[in-house]
Design a protein that fits this description.
With 94 residues, the protein is mainly α. The longest helix is centred in the middle third of the chain and has 28 residues. Helices cover 74% and strands 0% of the residues. The protein has one domain.
Length: 94
């Protein structure tokens, strides 16, 4: 519990900083304000869920770090495949 509380400021500040810089660099600051808040919330939720997944995997494979690394890769691969990271850019050219 103390590790989660100690990691919380970093888990909230880094995605917030990333999302604001990314939002400004992509030129979307002229749009509505609520889009920035939604983007920040999505980045924070992704960071928190990735942290909790890492803690869960390390707790499951406490004695076998090699198995933890392999299991982490195996669980991250389907998430990246189904998130659209391999989508063709031609589909988005409309």
């Amino acid at each position: 519990m103390s590790k989660v509380i100690c990691d919380l400021p970093i888990q909230l500040s880094i995605p917030n900083l990333f999302s604001v810089i990314t939002y400004i660099m992509t030129g979307q600051y002229h749009e509505d304000e609520w889009r920035l808040y939604y983007f920040e919330m999505i980045c924070i939720l992704i960071a928190l869920s990735a942290n909790s997944q890492g803690l869960m995997i390390s707790a499951l494979f406490m004695k076998k770090p090699t198995a933890a690394v392999l299991f982490g890769c195996f669980t991250a691969t389907p998430m990246s495949l189904f998130s659209g990271i391999i989508s063709k850019l031609l589909l988005f050219s409309h």
